[in-house]
From TrEMBL:
Residues 1079-1303 form the Pecanex C-terminal domain. Residues 1398-1433 have a biased composition (Pro residues). This is Pecanex-like protein. The lineage of its organism: Eukaryota, Metazoa, Chordata, Craniata, Vertebrata. Residues 34-120, 1353-1536 are annotated as: Disordered. The keyword Transmembrane applies. Residues 1364-1374, 1499-1509 have a biased composition (Polar residues). It is a multi-pass membrane protein. Belongs to the pecanex family. Residues 1434-1447 have a biased composition (Low complexity). It comes from Galeopterus variegatus. The chain crosses the membrane at residues 327-344, 364-380, 392-408, 414-439, 451-475, 487-507, 561-583, 589-606. InterPro entries: Pecanex, Pecanex_C. Keywords: Membrane, Transmembrane, Transmembrane helix. It is found in: Membrane.
Amino acid sequence: MDGAGGDVLRVPLVGSKAELEAQVGVELAAGEPAVLPAEARRGPAANQPGWRGELQEEGAVGGAAEESGKRDRSSSVRRTQAIRRRHNAGSNPTPPASVMGSPPSSLQEAQRGRAASHSRALTLPSALHFASSLLLTRAGANVHEACTFDDTSEGAVHYFYDESGVRRSYTFGLAGGGYENPVGQQGEQAASGAWDRHSHSSSFHSADIPEATGGLNLLQPRPVVLQGMQVRRVPLEIPEFDLLDQDSLHESQEQTLMEEAPPRAQHSYKYWLLPGRWTSVRYERLALLALLDRTRGVVENVFGVGLSSLVAFLGYLLLLKGFFTDIWVFQFCLVIASCQYSLLKSVQPDAASPMHGHNWVIAYSRPVYFCICCLLIWLLDTLGSAQPFPPVSLYGLTLFSASFFFCARDVATVFTLCFPFVFLLGLLPQVNTCLMYLLEQIDMHGFGGTAATSPLTAVFSLSRSLLAAALLYGFCLGAIKTPWPEQHVPVLFSVFCGLLVALSYHLSRQSSDPTVLWSLIRSKLFPELEERSLETARAEPPDPLPDKMRQSVREVLHSDLVMCVVIAVLTFAVSASTVFIALKSVLGFVLYALAGAVGFFTHYLLPQLRKQLPWFCLSQPVLKPQEYSQYEVRGAAQVMWFEKLYAGLQCVEKYLIYPAVVLNALTVDAHTVVSHPDKFCLYCRALLMTVAGLKLLRSAFCCPPQQYLTLAFTVLLFHFDYPRLSQGFLLDYFLMSLLCSKLWDLLYKLRFVLTYIAPWQITWGSAFHAFAQPFAVPHSAMLFVQALLSGLFSTPLNPLLGSAVFIMSYARPLKFWERDYNTKRVDHSNTRLVTQLDRNPGSDDNNLNSIFYEHLTRSLQHTLCGDLMLGRWGNYGPGDCFVLASDYLNALVHLIEVGNGLITFQLRGLEFRGTYCQQREVEAITEGVEEDEGCCCCEPGHLPRVLSFNAAFGQRWLAWEVTASKYVLEGYSISDNNAASMLQVFDLRKILITYYVKSIIYYVSRSPKLEAWLNHEGITASLRPVRAPGYADSDPTFSLSVDEDYDLRLSGLSLPSFCSVHLDWIQYCASRRSQPVDQDWNSPLVTLCFGLCVLGRRALGTASHSMSASLEPFLYGLHALFKGDFRITSPRDEWVFADMDLLHRVVAPGVRMALKLHQDHFTSPDEYEEPAALYDAIAANEERLVISHEGDPAWRSAILSNTPSLLALRHVMDDASDEYKIIMLNRRHLSFRVIKVNRECVRGLWAGQQQELVFLRNRNPERGSIQNAKQALRNMINSSCDQPLGYPIYVSPLTTSLAGSHPQLRALWGGPVSLGAIARWLLHSWERLHKGCGAGCNSGGNVDDSDCGGGGGLTSLSNNPSLAQPTPENTAGSGDQALPPGPGWGPRPSLSSSGDGRPPPLLQWPPPRLPGPPPASPAPTEGPRPSRPPGPGPLSSEGLSGKWSLGGRKGLGGSDGEPASGSPKGGTPKSQAPLDLNLSPDVSTEVSPHRAAQDIPCLNSSALESGTPTGAPGDWPAAAEEHESPAAQPLLEHQY
């Protein structure tokens, strides 16, 4: 390096982007020009707006020499950015052809003159040195500067600036080849000025180039080829000579980088030791983050230090005790080091991490598991040495012996040494997941609890079970400690049995999630907190779901309050009756046989007969629902006889058979323990009996489909196969229930594995799958061992990368997902206004269609539990997965918690327009196999309604089965029409504009603020000019092609032309108002309508870009107005700001209603020609139809509230489409196919996706693990994973469905039992007895006849409101419905025929009213019916009802009743008012005539339809007299 090169400050190479940015900031702040490169100090004032701007964009730089300090700094920044880009990318773009163009001729002449005046002996610049060194070996190599832009001769050197401002040169070689190299940056200002003087040219003579006082300044020589005057980098191909020596080339590159890079500043990190005291750590922030994890607080630091100390202490303790020797000491030290280092820098991502990115919980997994294992090793060793417990033999296994403890200690020791391998495979979950899993398993398998939904709910559920067990333990211990007399059961044991069954029943009906229960308690105890939360949430539309859930939980609690008492009393009575002791030799086998027979018929035979393919042999179900043969379902599913039978048998099984089985086992075992004490102490026996009884009863109440097999295996194994191993039937049953649950898991896993790897149906999604298929065959034994372990610990068995190689994953609870990725709908309530107007967020199909899955979740929340109890989904259990498939909805339903009358589930909705793989799997689950006639390679056919051999074989090798093909559920049918096709021509747009105008007029006339608008001075003054003669609004947005009232003469919209078209419609709308208004053509109403219609059309034109006649701008503007984006840009329309309701209540609904009317126009074009028809249509649509933008929160609220019809204009912007659709929704009942999927298949595929995407980081969107596999529905299951692993368009929160919300099941069972319902039933029974006795004792009739005329059947006291003055109008049975006057006042019963074959009675009721004074008593031939004088008091001993007459009640014997010939007078005494209790259930009073005829057997339906009574005309009194007959009141009360 010569002198000039020595002026450049040499600094080390910049190591990172952060260091470079920090270094530049320091240099600029310090203002040190010495460290800046020469080009940065060069005058950048040549940024001319002409050629330089273009060249800088293309990659060349030029300009004049001009000094500026501010631009020096900007040039330095650009230079630094250029170095950074070269450092990161390693390559730089080259200038385009425009840079290499020819310079002006005057510049060329000036360059030639300067070249002649300078000596050729001057030193060449560094670029020429570089080119000369490369071409020196060739004879006659002529390295020279290019004279013109077109000079491409051998050795010609061109200069240019790249896009980063770096000066470079290019030297042409042989056959178009060449070399690109940077030019050495000079420090002299004169040299920079000399270069800038020639900025208009990129080719110079050697005399014009500043002398290079430095040596070679190489950065990175790159061979390039110049083709078409564009520089490209290609490999250098010069075979005639060799390049520079590689070692010297690298040395020169390093020297160049050392010269160009600025000095690297030293950074340090301040580590605070004490307040005000810190030490410097020689690391920058990014490097320190790469070395250590950042802690989030002091508590986390303290916990980390304490946990690390505990790891060291426990490791030292085990090493001190000598548990490890030889090489295992080193291995154990490695385990200790890995656990401690994970607290400093955790493994991210970990194999057991359920989330992307940094997971702070996973950092504590290794040390926590290490501490637990070390404590377990130390505890087991201590117990083995001390032996505090006597050895116990249970089922042939010796427990609590020294060898038992030492064997368990050795297993824990080996497991601890295998920590690196265990955590590499991810066999242990993170700590919170493990805690939730352990608590859930203990609660489910130990106490019969249900699945947990979170760690908090797991703690709550287990605590509740422990509290119940502790309460029952005392009663059980006290019962078995006292001696039992012969053939007698102690009272304390009967109390224990009653409490056990009652508490088990109550716990089985409660959810593990206490959120709703706490909300109900808070609303009762702390109402002020509830009001405060309601005030905060009042801005959003109210969600009815929380109130419904609280009401359902309230009904369950009220029912349990009664039922638990009843169950406890009945159980106490049965247990105290000594039936279990007296018949213990026979009763047990009778109960076992009965439970097995009922369970086999209920849970095997009936579900098989109801399946779509019974036993995979028949092609149709044997027991079909009524909707099976319907092409389109019209209503709710009908309850069939076999559904009632299934529900009834389940009730008998749950509430009679299994409680009797458990009580029998409890009594026999307790009697045996008291009579013959065994090796267990009484305390342990009491504990085992309590826990086993609680678990078995709760399991029988919650999930009866699996109980009959468990009971059968228990009887066969311990009564016939190995009776000597029996430890009592109760304990045997408890152990077998635990074993059967694990065997079910193992069976499902083996089915999944065999189905997935079957060679005749394997689908290889990648080359790895083809390789792994034969590789997995020799490892079948290892696969079976993994299946056994995974079944024992309830862990998923997942295919590695979707292949045939299976590995065991870590244990998960039934909920499976540790995190809640519940999707959130994007609408106007959670996005900014500017985002809504500009980018229209959430306009993709997936976000808009997610609302339908949310509505489907709400529908399932009402009906799922009841449908499962009716057997419509077949057998079910906790963790089962089902797929609901319809025309466009495909959802996966995951059952999580299964209780007694409650189901907690989660729904995952898939895309409407799924991928190719998803469509293939949807076709597989929806297509029928009845047409398959193949048998191996031939097609012999099949028997009628029987599957062919190929179809039956193929259905057996699937991980799913169709359980129902016609499952009816309430939802929305979706129809979408392309808006472009409906508005393509101008005539169709004109129709839309016309309906737009008429809708605006309609809303103006219907507005309650019309009088205020007409009298508003500002509006009147602004609209006064439109009535002037010759006025026309000539806005360019109006045209004859779309505006029907366009005035050609005035070239705009005028009031006369507007009135000629729309005046009749305005007058008709005004005539429908209750208050008259002026309707002349120049009235304020017409003027206001004209102004609003002009404003609305101008807003549409403004949003549609005014004069544009194409369809896309028009649709864009229509959609903008539809979503409420009105932009008032004309000063003539600013009067509308006087009241914003003119926009919100008139113009905005007008454009939406116009779209609906325009759509109806295609079905019946002439329907709305008459104003009356159009007015009624708009009114009807306004009442029953919700028209809104899908981003409006009102759209979601309308769907979730089950609005009958909705309409929206959707703008879909996908990658491949940009279109507008008119969406029409109609609420109706939809038909779904229910497919039950192997739950272990779902869990295994989910676990495989989590491992592949989170741990292995396979981001390939076409990876083999998501390719379609019809036998396992691999794509649909993997697509339903939580985001971002899968891509469902909707993931619901955990939703609980209760049986009480199912209307059909509620009608079948009669609703929940509560104190209020019992009181209503008693009052209703008393009322029937009251009326029946009154009619029977006085007329000689029977109770049935009195019911017909006296209000029997399903009436209640709520239909008899207490009235001070009973009249025919207010005694019709309903206070909300008035009786219509006239002869058709109401249906009258005809007693001419009783309907059961008996002769008609002699007396017609009500009796005919004869003219003249009323007789003293009726004639005996007309039916002996003595008249009764008015009673003086509330209780009358003489009358139609005798001594049973109760005052204050309307009816035949009430104090307000009158004889048939009398008229009502007087009222009910005030003292009798409290007797009229209004305690009726929620029974609708709106009863149709047909329903009334069904409720009253003696009514003739033909008479109801005709509206006239049957029988002779003389049998009925006149209508006016009927209103005065109080004797008809009981019949009317029952009837209405």
